[in-house]
Amino acid sequence: MSLRDKFTGTGIAIVTPFNEDGAIDWNSFSNLIQFWIKGQVEYLVVLGTTGESATVHGNEKQEVFSFVVKEVAGRRPLVAGIGGNDTNEVIEGFKKFDLKGYDAILSVSPYYNKPNQEGIFQHYKALNAATPLPIIMYNVPGRTGQSVTAETQLRIAHELKNIFATKEASGNYDLINQIIKNKPADFMVISGDDPITLQMIAAGAEGLISVVANAYPLDYSNMVRLCLKGDLDSAKPLHYKYIDIIASMFAEGSPSGVKAYLSEMGLCKNTFRLPVWKVSDKHHAKIRELIKTIEQ
Q1: Could you give the residue numbers annotated as active site?
Q2: Would the pTM count as exceeding 0.90?
Q3: Any idea what the Cα angle at residue 15 is, between residues 14 and 21, rounded to 5°?
Q4: Which domain holds residue 131?
Q5: Which three-class secondary structure state does DSSP give residue 76?
Q6: pLDDT, tens digit, 9 for 90 and up, residues 108-157
Q7: Is 258 part of a structural domain of the chain?
Q8: Positive or negative CA dihedral for 228, 229, 233, 237?
Q9: 174 inside domain
Q10: Residues sharing a CB contact under 8 Å with residue 38, sequence separation 6 or more, in sequence order
Q11: Is the sign of the CA dihedral 229, 230, 234, 238 positive or negative?
Q12: Which among 10, 122, 191, 228 is least buried, having the fewest CB atoms inside 10 angstroms?
């Protein structure tokens, strides 16, 4: 199966469930994986931002990577989240983690340091030379504080052939249009923004790495498939059905919002590792009401 076949459609940036004491809740994790696969998503992204990767370290990170491989058992392609703001540390991660069973790596652009565009390109050039797997780069300026420009992303797409896709979460339509217009034919643009996925696929993106699909995998992956078929009229009702849900998932931070939904569904506990914290009681009450509207 080609990379395009594996990663066209809906991937989930999966949560990492925790017990009240902060330990990983492996039982809930197993149940969630079965739920997502039953929801017919195309692939899973492990230890991205939604998975609270910033507070999962060392051997525990390997435990998560290995656990997901065992539970999925080849039924879906897998992506390992390995990124950071220290290029050498990211490369060391490439070397030390056992990524057997994984099909690609998701690597976010460097955060906090705020490198210039040449620094961002050189970072990805170093990853491109060292990677054991194909890479999806990730532009999310709302979290990193620095956007990867269309010019830089296109330079990466044309020159760094182990980087086969970009997860684009800038919300900048001009940037997105420039990338889609000028990218190599084999370079994939993947939406990183649930609420504008319909519009991005209409413009030429090839799918989504989703947060909302943690809780609503079947509906949202069906919406994406309809978009990819060009049937926007059938996709729009599902798109608008979840607009308020998606907004609520991010209103007080993510994954705080999506775990509130999953806890209400009985799929995992509403627990996190600091500094991530649960949504306010007022917002959680709103989430309960929104769940009722979906169930009607």
Answers
A1: 138, 167
A2: yes
A3: 155
A4: 3-230
A5: coil
A6: 999 999 999 999 999 999 999 999 999 999 999 999 999 999 999 999 99
A7: no
A8: negative
A9: yes
A10: 217, 218
A11: positive
A12: 122
